[in-house]
Amino acid sequence: MTRKMFFGKIFINFVNFFIKVFIYFCKHFKNVSNIYDIMSNELWYDCFIQALYEKYPRRSHLILALKDLLFIEREAVYRRLRKDVLFSINEIVKIASEWHISLDKITSVNSGKIPFLMQPMNYIDPSKEELKFLRQIIDALHYFKDFSETEFMDICNKLPRQLHAGYKYLNLFYLFKWNYQYGDKKKTVPFSQTTISEEKTLLDASYYQAIKQVPNSNFIWDRMIFDYLVSDILYFQSIQVITDEDKKLIKNDLYALLDYIQEVADKGCYPETQNKVNLYISQLSIDANYSYTFTPEVNICFVHAFEKFEIYTFEKEMVENFRNWMQLKKRTSVQISEVDERSRIEFFSKQRQLVDQL
Predict the structure, then answer these.
(1) Structure-model confidence comparison of residues 283 and 183, the more confident one
(2) Residue 71 region, left (φ>0) first, then alpha (ψ -120 to 50), else beta?
(3) Which of 139, 186, 280, 313 makes a 20 to 30 Å CA pair with 45?
(4) Which of 154, 100, 4 is nearest to 315 (CA)?
(5) Under a CB-based contact definition with an 8 Å cutoff, are residues 136 and 10 in contact?
(6) 214-231 as b/e, with b when 16 or more CB fall inside 10 Å?
(7) From CA 348, how far away is CA 333, in angstroms rounded?
(8) Which of 316, 309, 268 is nearest to 288 (CA)?
(9) Which residues pair with 301 in a beta bridge?
């Protein structure tokens, strides 16, 4: 299986092809006949075929990839490439989605808008498809470990999942908080009764290890990140959905996390994999959580919302903008990994004092 075919199977979980077809054509075409007018336009079709060859310059590779993607015979692929038969609308959108081909650019239609998608997830009782989706994310992280250019960056005002996923009670707290705010309004589930399935627990542990395979990671934290977390825990204790015993379990995880992150900051890398990690503390408040993953084959950026959901896009220009904007955030941040030992010691000392309040 080629690298592009492998990633295609992961990418399909991010995109609902039929909704995209509906939205796209409803925006840009008056009626069905207009669609076929454009489909029959030789220049448009030539541009689409050219885009395919840009993805797979060798004709034999292109034919094999289309055959596997569309589940059609080799001769059927030949006919489409010779223009004896046109690709169907569904085929075009599926190809464009899988291979990140911009239909706007090919049709010379500029909507002026960049679509963002959202992947809902039931973290309390995930379905088989949702569990499969999480496994594929883990597979992708392992897949890209051999690409030295792969880069992950996260700007956050709450502890990122990449770090808290390895701590049982801290991870459970974020699930509890999400469920309290966005779960069943008729039933309040206290922390002690919040559960994670065994399979989901194993996936969280696998994800925590897999994220360390990324060659380059950058984190920019809000300077109040632990203040917010400690305040949240104390609030839930005040309304009696977190007990003293619960709080102690979370507190111990926080100490363990701080010890680990300080070790990462001291070394400038994950101790398990030696992969590079840069940790910055923002001197300005961070209003939302953003991240991007930049790889040689596919790029994606996220706006994190509603505690545990992500709104994302693969659109090349927007990902590049995200990357530039987020890198600029370093101008108002202090790097505490490897350099500036005094600031690093002061920061972690202050965070431990905050946790002491629990």
Answers:
(1) 283
(2) left
(3) 313
(4) 100
(5) yes
(6) bbbbbbbbbbebbeebbe
(7) 16
(8) 309
(9) 292, 313
Query: What is the pTM assigned to this prediction?
Result: 0.71
Residues 64-73 pLDDT 10s: 989 988 999 9
Q: Mind spelling out the 3-state secondary structure of the chain?
A: CCHHHHHHHHHCCCCCHHHHHHHHHHHHCCCHHHHHHHHCCHHHHHHHHHHHHHHCCCHHHHHHHHHHHHCCCHHHHHHHHHCCCCCCHHHHHHHHHHHCCCHHHHCCCCCCCCCCEECCCCCCCCCHHHHHHHHHHHHHHHHHHHCCCCEEEEEECCCCHHHHCCCHHHHHHHHHHHHHHHCCCCCCCCHHHCCCCHHHHHHHHHHHHHHHHCCEEEEEEECCHHHHHHHHHHHHHHCCCCCHHHHHHHHHHHHHHHHHHHHHHHHCECCCCCCEEEEEEECCCCCCEEEEEECCCCEEEEEEECCCEEEEECCHHHHHHHHHHHHHHHHHEEECCCCCHHHHHHHHHHHHHHHHCC
State both tokens at 103: 């239909």
Structural contact between residues 152 and 207, judged by C-beta atoms closer than 8 angstroms: no
Q: What order of strands is seen across the sheet that includes strand 151-156?
A: 117-118, 309-313, 299-305, 289-294, 151-156, 216-222, 276-282, 333-335
> Of the ranges 21-30, 53-62, 127-136, 141-150, which one carries the lowest mean pLDDT score?
21-30
What would the mean pLDDT of 228-247 be, rounded to a whole number? 96
Contacts of 282 (CB under 8 A, 6+ apart): 155, 220, 221, 222, 223, 329, 332, 333
Is residue 97 within 8 A of residue 90, CB to CB? The reply is no
